[in-house]
Amino acid sequence: MKRKFIKICVAAMSISVLSVVSVFAFQSRNVNYNDQPFSTYYMDDYNVSHHVSGTASVDAAVGWDEGYSGWIISAYFPKPCVTIDGMSADINYVGTTEISGSSAYQEFSINNTTHSVRPTVVCDEYGDTYFWVKSW
Amino acid sequence: MKEKITIIFCTVILMLTLTSCNKYKQQVGEFESGNIFADYQYNQEEVQSKYGTSEMAIAENGYYYIIDNILFFYNVNSDVNMPVCSKVNCKHSDENCDAYVSSVKSETGSFACNCLGNKIFFYNNHLYCIEVTKDRDYDLYQYDASFGNKKKILRLASVKEDKLFVSDAKVCMISEGYLYYYTSYLDPEYANNDYITKFQCNRIKLEENAAREELGEFDFPGDYAAKAGDSNGLAIYLSDNNIYFYAGGTARMYSKDNRVQYRVAKYNPAEKQFDIIWTHTGNDSSDVLGKDTGNVNYMSGGNFVKMDSDGNFYILNATEENVDRIIKVNFEDNISEVIYTTQQDRIYSLQSDGENLYFFESSSGRNTKSYFISTDFAGTIKSKYEMLYDDIYLSKMEEHYKMYPDDNAVKPDASHIIVYGIDDRYILMGCEEPANVFKGLKSSETSDKLDKISGVGVLNTKDYLDGSDVTIKQIYQYEQ
User: Rounded to an integer, what distance in angstroms lies between the CA atom of residue B413 and that of residue B365?
Assistant: First the structure.
């Protein structure tokens, strides 16, 4: 009887450990960042100060393996709204959204120049996500 | 017993010490130390980036280049890649490092820096950088090969004295004992004059207290660059015994007028003759370089344009359908022709060593592939190397595509790979963090800063051009 009881306990523990592991093996969720503001001030070579500001968004699906890795399943970045010195800038997609594992980003050109805005979303191994916008 | 434990402990410590200093050295591998390029003939005039901008300075025994504001030296003979800093316990990551270099910080409005444009030169066994004071004096400083013994050599420009500053420092070029460079006039009415100002083409002899010689001047927009220190589409070359000054852009950041402008000038040092050989001003980007040549775009700016040794320019542009092409142009003879049209989607990072053109060519979409290609100056392919993805990354993406057949994930292409430079020995290339996925250029750690360099590697130039079986040998990978 005692042996049977021990066997049942061991079996129950094994099943619960496996369940916990399989629950944490893969998780996913949708994440939205809407109209997140960004703003940069900078000088040009002629001592004229400029201001780039705007808002950017992303609709993404993210997945993660608890404590092991996070990744971006899909991400859609609509065109951000950008002004330069208060005037609306012409914004265009540069290439397609790039996803390399735990991060995804999309580059947008400003006024058809090499200067761009790049919103990025990242998912870590705990399912926490981060969103930021770089403009240069 | 105690003795045994002591011996084992000391052995372990010794082993750890011997293996601890390989952060910057990757895979000694099949390359043995010693002079593996015994036939290489160093010629300092030939390695001064005369066919277009380069991101490295070439010495007889290796290359100087910058990773995340730290100056590195890769010794080709010993296969060692190290920051040029000998401080004990230095983390080589910030201003406290002796190898720290920086350009202007436009976000803070601070022009003071010790390496304008992140441009380094190696000439007459010395390193050179352009330093800027907070009052915007632009001075050339000389260092020894270990980046020590700093000495001010020359005043290149001064905003306080002449209202002039050094523009596009990255394109400065040394030739036959002279530094050739651009300055621009800091016109107080610049914003009221539709962001047009004067640009001077200069040279200065590399000896103490030499004075700037202004070779010529032209009016040109200053707003192809958005921020202080950015490229304004300028370039300087040495070809066919002439110095060429190139300025070009297609999209102005602040003005919507006359968005497409080019100036090309030629200076003959023997005859001391300066001429503007081509000018274009307009709004239409179509057929600017000649009939049926297509549309100029941001890749037609000076930072992407290269030359050969016969006075010909090689300029990227695109068809109406946005297919990238390389156009060969001779401005003096008024001749232009399409020499190469991509079979993929995009061309990136055009380079020239005076004998070949080199560039990346990438497709896009789920089956993104990137190739490093060399052609002759007629556009005939000589060599083609596929930039391979890391195996673990590839299998993750394959799993991902199976699980999510409809999503929009694509693999990064070669647009994030920087070619630091090319000589007869190696092609030196590095990869930025967003594309931390290529074999030989990858780090196992990721940075949350997308402009960090994840990895640097070298490709043997001769083996690559011969079509031999080559791989990128990694010499640096990012570590936190």
Answer: 10
